[in-house]
Design goal:
Radius of gyration: 29 Å
Number of strands: 9
Strand content: 15-25%
Largest sheet: 5 strands, antiparallel
Order of helices and strands: HHHHHHHHHEEEEEEEEHHEH
Shape: globular
Length: about 400
């Protein structure tokens, strides 16, 4: 009996990971350990919680070496297809090099040569994706959050995952809140924009308390095409009441230019940007006066034309001349910028708005806006004879 009890105790303790593996991002399987991992190591758990719980009780066998005959036979077929795609990639690269070495006169001119090279480069990128799209190891790494965004296949998978749900939700919020045409006339976002206040991920259209939005947020701008580029970040409030004209004006709450992003460096903390070389207008805390409806704050990401830097001093003089009113459409037309990403959140009057406005030096915290009552139509007495 004692021997049986000792065997049971050994089997029960064998499934418990050693203390050094408790904070392994591949093995944490409880909310308490996930919070501890994030607090002590600043790392996010990898994969789903079900996967991490399964890895605790299974042997550490590489995914591509799983001992299943059907799985290995399928991998052999996929490897043969990949070898064929790699041969096509090499052949297409030789064709591109041949066209590049050919004079433009023999290709029909510079315009025809450039167009042909663009089409050939596009087909080459498609072949790179087709070579890895069916690889189960690639899919496993992507689902575990270990994909390298320098490779075209991981950028393609991330773009497809974004367009399946998150982009649809974003476009739904934009249509519901009439961002088109109140802010921009047309948009087709190609980059995913996330906004964080501390640990909270602000979903499109969420209400953010005025005390939380007093400081600038951190943006996560994920692009899905290769290369670095300079972008401009503009935060616009199109719901500023104008009591003189009985309408609404647009106000710029933040403006930064020459922000360098890439597929592998998407994080942009607005508080960490340079004041002289990048920040055109510092962060103005979002606020809504008492009695006014909620305000929409729109975060617009504009790709600068040709990857060129903009002159911050020239833009500062232009914005100072416009005063409080800001029209993002005219700025896009003047600089030929392309809208690549967008995000939005809302703010309204709450208990902390008055304090935020006083600390920022904004007037109007003691004023309450009220709707103007419609004028009544003049009373017209009806002729009583018609009812006799």
């Amino acid at each position: 009996m004692r021997a049986e009890a000792s065997i049971e105790n050994q089997s029960s303790t064998s499934n418990i990971p050693p203390p050094g593996r408790l904070l392994d991002p591949n093995l944490v399987a409880t909310p308490r350990l996930e919070r501890r991992l994030l607090r002590e190591t600043k790392q996010q758990p990898i994969g789903s919680r079900r996967r991490r719980a399964a890895l605790q009780s299974t042997s550490n066998i590489p995914f591509e070496q799983l001992p299943y005959q059907c799985f290995q036979e399928a991998r052999n077929l996929l490897l043969a297809d990949r070898q064929e795609k790699l041969k096509q990639i090499e052949e297409e690269r030789r064709r591109i090099a041949k066209v590049q070495a050919t004079p433009a006169e023999q290709c029909g001119g510079d315009y025809v040569k450039k167009g042909r090279l663009v089409r050939m480069q596009k087909y080459l990128e498609e072949l790179k994706i087709l070579a890895d799209i069916n690889d189960p190891v690639i899919k496993k790494r992507f689902e575990d959050g270990e994909g390298d965004m320098n490779r075209p296949i991981y950028r393609y998978l991330a773009d497809r995952q974004w367009r399946q749900q998150r982009r649809r939700i974003l476009m739904q919020r934009i249509n519901q809140m009439h961002i088109v045409p109140d802010v921009v006339s047309y948009l087709d976002p190609t980059a995913e924009v996330k906004m964080f206040y501390r640990r909270r991920n602000i979903q499109p259209g969420d209400f953010v308390e005025s005390q939380n939005s007093e400081t600038p947020p951190r943006l996560h701008i994920q692009v899905f095409d290769k290369g670095e580029r300079f972008v401009s970040i503009v935060v616009v409030d199109p719901d500023v009441p104008n009591v003189v004209t009985d309408s609404f004006d647009s106000r710029c709450h933040y403006f930064a230019v020459n922000v360098l992003i890439s597929p592998t460096s998407p994080s942009v903390p607005l508080a960490g940007l340079s004041d002289d070389a990048q920040t055109i207008r510092p962060w103005l805390p979002p606020h809504a006066q008492k009695g006014s409806p909620y305000h929409r704050l729109v975060v617009v990401i504009l790709e600068q034309t040709g990857g060129q830097r903009l002159d911050p001093q020239d833009l500062k003089r232009t914005l100072d001349g416009q005063g409080a009113h800001f029209n993002i459409r005219s700025y896009m037309d003047r600089t030929h910028s392309k809208l690549t990403g967008i995000h939005l959140f809302r703010t309204k009057w709450d208990d902390g708005t008055a304090g935020v406005m006083q600390r920022a030096g904004i007037e109007g915290a003691d004023i309450e806006l009220k709707r103007r009552k419609p004028e009544k139509l003049p009373y017209k007495k009806k002729n009583p004879e018609r009812y006799r």
